[in-house]
Structure formats: structure tokens, C-alpha cells
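Aim 2, interim progress. The first record below pairs a target sequence with its C-alpha cells.
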Amino acid sequence: MPECWDGEHDVETPYGMLHVVIRGAPKGNKPAILTYHDVGLNHKMCFNPFFNNEDMQEITKHFVICHVDAPGQHVGASQFPQGYQYPTMDQLAGMLPTVVQHFGFKSIVGIGVGAGAYILAKFALMFPDMVEGLVLLNIDPNGKGWIDWAASKLSGLTSTIPDTVLPHLFSQEEMVNNTELVQSYRQQITNSINHQNLQLFWNMYNSRRDLEMNRGGTTINAKTLKCPVMLVVGDNAPAEEGVVECNSKLDPTNTTFLKMADSGGLPQLTQPGKLTEAFKYFLQGMGYIANVKDRRLSGGPVPSASMTRLARSRTASLTSAGSVEGSRSRACTNSDGGEGVGAVSQTMEVSC
């Protein structure tokens, strides 16, 4: 991939055009970091505070960044014509191999929020060899029931699309107390995203099916994500129940569940520093960053023993995971020297 590809691109895929923004150039054989935003946002609104965080520069210098905007959601996107059929969630996931191949990426580490987390999880289920790791914020693996679907349709008839989407993005507490942040995003949604295009994306997200994955041993021919996964959700976030449900469907030996205090519905906006630090340890555990220097600690390298040694957090709950096999050590899980072959492994849960 030539360095001149740094910038904005329109990539033609089997299911339509995608707006993609590349930052940096590939570094050796490292995967690209590919992001996918939530419904109601685009890559700028969803990820700018996170990627502009000072500590994030230590990560971005090691990787090429690929921001994907869902069809019609980027700033300045043309309105889709009347009768346009928006891609299904499966088709949105099916667009991503074309992006990976177009830019010559060998593989990706995905960061997705809400609808984007669902799309990246679906992508990893469909094309596991392309995905080396996933950070999934606010993922809901469950499809909408008829009652929920009807309620969202009714809400769409009685509310503007920004007011319909906001309760999906922010907690009730934030809607009441953090009015400055909520009002800022109401204005950005109103001014930055074509409302008809957003309505199509919103309708398709609310028509999604269950992600077909189950933890091994729970069902016959169970299928789940094979790569390391970090699940993230804010306390009292609208997606909290869905993230807990997703956690129950993943392999506990390569899954970290990070619950962030005082972060509301979008931790990457409200706690970008904490999330950046967790992401560093996630990548370090995959063997992509030799050591991590934390400016707020002693200044020396932090060993890759576990994410629980982060001095910036108060660890409310922690359960160790079983030993992990593979060529790369997983720093985001602990090796539990439990007695006997039948020792039960659990997902590592960290509250901060």
C-alpha cells in the first residue's frame, strides 16, 4: 500500500460504495486497526476524541488506521434515491473483505461501537482468518423482537431521527445530567448526517438477527469468535445487558470484559484515556507492542502480566481466566494454575 493512500477513499464493494479514511501506512506485518462506528454517528463523531487522545499516539505510530463509514453516513454524503435498499447487517459485514484486500492489509484488529461492533463481530464469524482481535463496545448480539421492533417504528413516527437515536447512544442519567454532551451530539447528528440515510441505517440495525454464536460445549456445533476479544461497556449504559449476554457466548480463555465507571453510554468519548490504556494492554497481550510505558506510573516499562495492574483504575471485580494456548501470549487473560484438568475457566472481568 503506497503512503499516498493516506486520506479519504471511496471503495466499491459487492454491496455498494464505502467511504474509508486511512491514517498512516502499514508497519511490517502488523495488522491494520479498522474502526466501525455506531448508528447515529460516523467515524469522526464516534472516534475522534479517542484517537486524538495524547496517549493514543503511542499506539497509532505502530499501526495503520482504517476508519470505515457505513454507507451514506459520512459528512457530505449524498442522499440515497427513493426506493434504495440499504445493505443488511450481513451485507455490511460482507463489504469489509473488499476493503481489507483493496488496501493490501494482511489482517485487522477491529474496534467497533454498537452497530459497528455487531458488524465487526459478524465479519469475524464470516472471515475469521482476516481478524486478529476485536474491541467491541456496546455490542448487542441479540436481534430485535417484534415488540421492540414495533416500538422503534412507533418512535420513528413520533420523534425526529436525532431524538430517536440519542437514547440508543447515551444512558438515561446522561440524558438528564450530561446535557452539554448530549446536546452537542444532537446538534452534530442534526447537521452532519443525512437524516434519510441515517433512518435507513437505523431501520436495518433494528431489523438485525441474532449473532449466531455460542460458547463451546453449550450447543451442538457451537460457533463463536476465535480471536482475542475485549468487551467494553459503561456502567448503566443502554447496551449493558446486551454486552453481558455477548460475554456469555464467547470463549472465556481469550475474552476480557471491561466495565467502565463514570463513562456512560460511549466510553470512547467520556473516558478516552482509560480506554486507550486498556487497548494498549490488549495489543501488548497479542504480542504487537513489546512494552508499554505509562507516564502516570514510574515511567518504566509495564510488564505484560495482566490488565489488572493499571494503577489508574480501581479494580472492583476480577476473575482469572484459564491458561491460553497459542503462539502469542494473551496479556488480557491470566493463567490460573487450578488443580485438575476440569478447572473451570472464566472471562476476566475488570471494572474501572
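The second target in this work package is listed in the same format:
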Amino acid sequence: MASSSCPTKFTSHQGITTLLPDIIETHILTRLDGQTLAAAACTSSHLHSLCAQEKLWQHICSSTWPSSNDPLVRDLVSSYPGGGHRSFFSHSFPVLDCQKQPSKRIHDDDSLLVTEQIISAVDLYYRNDPVFSRVTENETVTGWFQFPPFRIDLVDAKDSVPTKIPFVSAANILFEELEKNLTLSWIIIDSSRNQAVNLSSRWPVSVQQDWLTSDLHVKYAVVIAAAGGNQRWGLFPARECVECEVMVTLGGRGKKGEEMLCVKEVNMQMKDMEGRNLSGKDGLVILQGAMESGERKNGRREEVKERYEEFLMRKIDRKEKKEWAERVLNNVCLATGLVVLVAFWAFKVF
């Protein structure tokens, strides 16, 4: 009796490229996240061509950031040169690292004339599930934006947005829960330059509760180094580093024992090392520098917290040195005044 033929086996020397492209596209690549897909594209020219398809990256962007499904964002990103959604993902994937001084000066006011509007695409997640998404536009050419403090507001305090985040009466437990599981993405898109940057630390750097209203203030922060060599701000330049601060205000809502947190306010500001707000014009210049020079990487929660604490220590150290220099200057001025007074008195007497 003739033996039946054995089915063809997939041996170890055969690569994934021996599979049909349709199988790779529909059953393998669609299951990968952005980082893994980018890594797979580097393995061979065949996979690179398959991984570069726009529909794959559009799916990844929409699943990573629900706000990117907004028609305004989707149409703008589709026109990106050099890859559309793939380029947008590489620009926006957190976390931004701008601790190093940029190689060129970014305080060039002529560059402001190019940017006419910025678009904010914001997503808030609880345990990796989106609970809040919003897209807003801000024009950047009129005095309404350039001269007042740089500030972008997404939610009016009167129009709070309900979420499925449970309220816990024990403050320490609630704070720990939010620090671990409430993540934020705030992507700012420069529509004129086709550039984007994620200006959120992803995880909170602090959670505090207002003793009067019981509202929770969840803070996210990214530290951006300003251009080196620019000393127009004196011996202790206040804009050596700029803090991009995002504040999310949460409040309780619902029956007692069944309360859920709601989003009451979401805003972004930029502050120098003395805590003073930057103007819209200066904030826009710092923002453009971050888009051009900032390094994007997949940071860890502990690393984000440590980096922000280092920034706080730098602020304290700078403040102490500045106060010491001011005391020395005051003593020198006082001593000089006394010498002049004694010299004048001696001249009159003798």
C-alpha cells in the first residue's frame, strides 16, 4: 500500500518572508504595536515595504491616540511628507527628552512668522483605557496669543466631563492609584511645518488635593532646555530650563459610595525656573525647539519622576546661589558706601 505524502513543514531555515504577503499583513503585522512594527521594518527590505503601509500606521495611531481619529488631525497627518501616520507616530511617541541643550539657538523670532496655528490632540487614560479625548485649535499670529501667558485650556470648569474612574475616600490610596494608572498624552501639531511633539510626561509627577474644594490636581510636566549661549537673562538665566506643565483637575460626582471622578479642567502652561509664566510668543519658540531637537523615547514611570525631582533640586540650588550672590552684592554695596562715607568725613575734618 502506497504511503500518503507528508505535508510540507515550515523548517527553521525558512524565514517569515516565505509566508504569503497577505498572511503577514492581515494576521501578523496588524497585531503589532508601533515600536514592534518599526523594529520589524528594520529586519529586511521585504518586511520594510510591508511595514511602511499607511493603513497599518493609521490603525496604530488611532488605537494609541483616539484623538487622532478627529477629521482635523487625520486629514493633517495624512498630508505629512515622508510617511503620513508613520512619521506622526515617530514624532509623537512619548516620552520627550529635552534635557540636553539644543545645538543651535532657538530664540529666533523670525521663525514665529511661519507658524499660524497649533493643534492640540489630548487623550487621558485610566488603566490604559481612554476616558477623555479632545482636539482644539489655537491661532498663533495675533496679540491674543503672543502677548498673554502661554496657556491652552481644554475644559471649562462649568462643563465637567464624567469618567469611569472610581473615587476612593482614602487619600493615600487614591493618590497612589492615580500616579500609577492615570496617564496622559498631549500632542501639539504645528500645521505649517508638519511637525508634532508629545508634551506630556505620560505619568503624573505629583497628585495633590485641594483642602477647600476636595478637587484633585494631577500634574504632568516635561522639562525643556533652552538654547545655550544666550545670556540675555543675566548671571542666573531663569529660562535655562522651561517647565511645560499640564494640570488635570478631577472632582467627585455621583451618589455617596458610588462616586466617580469627572474631568473639571485640563490646561497647559509654560514656566521658567522662577515659576513665572512665559508669554505665548516665547512659549511658541520653546515649543518649536522641542519639536526640532527633542529626543523621543519610551521612558519608565520611575525615570519620569526622578527626572522631575532632579529639576526641582536644580531650581532650589539655583535659588540658593542667587540669594547668596545677592547677599554678597548687598554687602559689597554696603561696604563701598561706608568707605565713601568715611573718606568724605576724613576729607571734611582734615
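The longest helix spans residues 301-349. This observation will shape the mutagenesis plan for the next reporting period.
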